[in-house]
């Protein structure tokens, strides 16, 4: 079904769908999805506030609010504003970007097993970063190198998949081929490196947000502010593509141009997140499934749900990794451990289509 | 079904024989090539008139022969397991690792090294095998629970989830303990070198059961690959067939990872490469996999010995770096959508 349809038949639309007239344009609004976004955002803010109180220097919620509004000067203000808030925001934004990127790639190639970790985007970032680490290059440039690695790899995958058009299966095969080469080369680098550098490389490729700064937050804000609305706007096109190439062309969709834009958006979201936090696994692959299972087939609204759930997962995982375990571990270790059981539970209940 | 872009049966048979001949040549090369060159005569004598006093023959017997045998077994196992997984799930991304066998095996070993302080790869084999089997069992349990039973997509997703759960636990252990990382990082790269032949013979029975069983299932796989509905309408018990095939895949992949460590990509790529000749007929696909899998694995292993003398590049790395461009080129040339 197309989101743009102007005369929808009431029998085929779910009861939660309303149509809102704004000027000359009618919007299709699913109130169930809308309320889901609201609830998820409230939970996210609450979780974030809780995260700000936690740490070796415990703060009350009131102290956190005071520190944020600037009512107090001193230690609490520094701890909340300069240490904890950037980390909380970075975790949330990175999670949102990864999850949205996964949703775009899965829809684009019509395969539920696809995510930027599988078709080589993250492997490109990892290879560039690990090369940078084991050759002892200056670490401040690491995020830039990782981003460049991801973008270069995506460009290579796109060009190698191009044969007059971009076909989903071809893109997947080329992607896993590129992924395999880069992963193997990364393993080769790790095996040859000394144990100290190998350990650092493993740390980076696990993904963490423990050294997040306001600079990271700024990068992610810009990326999300530009790309998330583009993604929401392209979701109807993604749904048309999922019906099939012929259908997409017959409704007048400029297929290849749309695909290119979707790939660019998905790649940039993932590359920025990986550059900031390393390739945190599981999020891009699983969160879109979780969102679809609880909110229904992918649409602009469900795309936003996906983003918020991704933020929740990474923030929650980072809190668990930082506070709940006897030793603090990077967030990339925990996302799998936190997300997987929930996903298995959903899979068990799944009467929705995955 | 139209065999578009494929060869007629007689030519397929002849090509298969050609592949067998190539495999024989590569196996001999695998005995001869390395940091020490071995003559044909020495290689022959080492096999049939072994003289322990000869240094060259000892090298063949203790180093080259084990890795050649392991390469033959592991290559065949991975390729066939990959083909079977792609047929049952009808997903070109499926490989022998889809059920979490590799990460289960790695998890078993890392846990054993961390808590049991194992240091020698010889002790790894049963932990790897047990870990792989347990992970696959968990995947199948989760994937088949709930209404609808074990659909391919649910199974695949459960496999990915179990894998990521295990690898996050494994990464945590490796990050906490550099000593464990030092012991296992070479195992984790996947290699035919330095594996004792006893590790292989101990899992050989499982591997043989897997190979023979899979060949016996070729007809059923062929029908299953046409899709759930077609297979059902032809009177097949798809659930039961799928369970048997899955069990065989677990045996093959578990034995392979226990013998050689996680060698990625081979099981995924070989069926795709093979299908470009055989078309969608799974009887031919499996027969070709049995030969082409070890052919590529041994070739990659030999290349890994030559390119970085006097050191070696792990075969898992070589298979990926060599196999991936082939896969990409094939994906660009022909229609790969059909499975």
Task: Describe this entry's structure for a reader.
The complex is a heterodimer of chains A (354) and B (339). By secondary structure, chain A is mostly helical. Chain A has a domain at 18-107 and 209-349: ABC transporter involved in vitamin B12 uptake, BtuC, CATH 1.10.3470. Chain A is built from 13 helices and two strands. Chain A has helices spanning 31-53, 61-69, 75-109, 121-134, 142-161, 168-192, 195-206, 214-243, 245-250, 255-277, 283-295, 300-324, 331-349, and strands at residues 17-22, 25-30. Chain A has a two-stranded antiparallel ribbon. In chain A, helix 3 runs antiparallel to helix 10 (255-277), helix 5 (142-161) runs antiparallel to helix 6 and helix 11 (283-295) packs across helix 12 (300-324). The longest helix of chain A is centred in the first third of the chain and has 35 residues, at 75-109. The relative contact order of chain A is 0.15. Chain B is mostly helical. Chain B has one domain: ABC transporter involved in vitamin B12 uptake, BtuC. Chain B contains 14 helices and no strands.
């Amino acid at each position: 079904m197309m989101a743009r349809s102007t005369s929808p038949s009431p029998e085929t639309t779910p009861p939660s769908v309303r149509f809102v007239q704004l000027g000359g344009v009618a919007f299709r609004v699913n109130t169930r999805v809308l309320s889901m976004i609201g609830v998820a955002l409230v939970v996210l803010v609450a979780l974030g506030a809780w995260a700000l109180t936690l740490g070796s220097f415990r703060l009350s919620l009131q102290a956190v609010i005071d520190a944020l509004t600037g009512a107090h000067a001193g230690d609490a203000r520094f701890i909340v504003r300069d240490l904890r808030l950037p980390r909380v925001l970075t975790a949330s934004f990175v999670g949102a970007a990864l999850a949205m990127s996964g949703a775009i790639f899965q829809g684009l190639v019509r395969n539920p097993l696809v995510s930027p970790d599988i078709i080589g985007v993250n492997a490109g970032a990892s290879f560039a970063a690990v090369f940078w680490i084991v050759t002892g290059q200056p670490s401040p440039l690491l995020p830039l190198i990782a981003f460049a690695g991801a973008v270069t790899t995506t460009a290579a995958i796109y060009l190698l998949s191009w044969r007059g058009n971009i076909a989903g299966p071809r893109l997947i095969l080329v992607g896993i081929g590129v992924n395999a080469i880069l992963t193997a080369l990364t393993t080769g680098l790790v095996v040859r490196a000394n144990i100290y550098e190998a350990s650092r490389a493993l740390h980076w490729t696990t993904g963490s947000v423990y050294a997040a700064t306001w600079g990271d937050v700024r990068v992610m804000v810009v990326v999300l502010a530009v790309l998330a609305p583009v993604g929401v706007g392209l979701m109807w096109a993604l749904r048309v593509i999922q019906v099939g190439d012929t259908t997409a062309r017959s409704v007048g969709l400029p297929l290849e141009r749309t695909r290119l834009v979707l790939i660019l958006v998905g790649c940039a979201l993932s590359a920025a997140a990986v550059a900031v936090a390393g390739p945190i696994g599981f999020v891009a692959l699983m969160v879109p499934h979780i969102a679809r299972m609880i909110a229904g087939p992918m649409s602009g609204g469900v795309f936003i749900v996906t983003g918020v759930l991704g933020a929740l997962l990474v923030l929650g995982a980072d809190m668990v990794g930082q506070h709940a375990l006897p030793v603090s571990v990077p967030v990339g270790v925990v996302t799998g451990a936190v997300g997987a059981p929930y996903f298995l539970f959903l899979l068990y209940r799944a009467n929705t289509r995955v | 079904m139209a065999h578009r872009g494929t060869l007629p049966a007689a030519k397929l048979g002849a090509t298969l024989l050609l592949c067998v001949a190539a495999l024989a040549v590569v196996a001999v090369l695998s005995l001869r090539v390395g940091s020490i060159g071995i003559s044909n005569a020495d290689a022959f004598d080492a096999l049939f008139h072994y003289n322990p006093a000869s240094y060259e023959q000892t090298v063949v017997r203790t180093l080259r022969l084990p890795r050649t045998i392991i390469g033959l077994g592991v290559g065949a196992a991975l390729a066939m397991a990959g083909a079977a997984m792609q047929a049952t799930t009808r997903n070109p991304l499926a490989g022998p690792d889809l059920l979490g066998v590799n990460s289960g095996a790695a998890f078993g070993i890392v846990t054993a090294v961390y808590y049991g302080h194992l240091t020698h790869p010889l002790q790894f084999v049963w932990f790897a095998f047990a870990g792989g089997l347990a992970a696959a069992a968990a995947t199948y349990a989760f994937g088949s629970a709930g209404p609808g039973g074990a659909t391919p997509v649910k199974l695949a997703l459960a496999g990915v989830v179990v894998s990521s759960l295990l690898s996050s636990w494994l990464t945590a252990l490796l990050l906490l303990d550099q000593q464990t990382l030092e012991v296992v990082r070479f195992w984790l790269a996947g290699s035919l070198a330095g594996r004792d032949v006893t590790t292989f013979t101990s899992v050989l029975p499982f591997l043989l059961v897997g190979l023979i069983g899979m060949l016996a299932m070729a007809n059923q796989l062929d029908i299953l690959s046409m899709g759930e509905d077609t297979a059902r309408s032809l009177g097949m018990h798809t659930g039961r067939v799928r369970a048997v095939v899955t069990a065989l895949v677990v045996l093959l992949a578990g034995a392979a990872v226990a013998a050689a460590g996680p060698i990625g990509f081979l099981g995924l790529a070989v069926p795709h490469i093979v299908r470009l000749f055989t078309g969608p007929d799974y009887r031919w696909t499996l027969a070709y996999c049995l030969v082409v899998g070890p052919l590529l694995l041994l070739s990659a292993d030999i290349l890994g010995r030559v390119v970085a003398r006097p050191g070696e590049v792990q075969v898992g790395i070589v298979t990926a770096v060599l196999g991936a461009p082939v896969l990409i080129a094939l994906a660009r040339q022909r229609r790969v959508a059909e499975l």
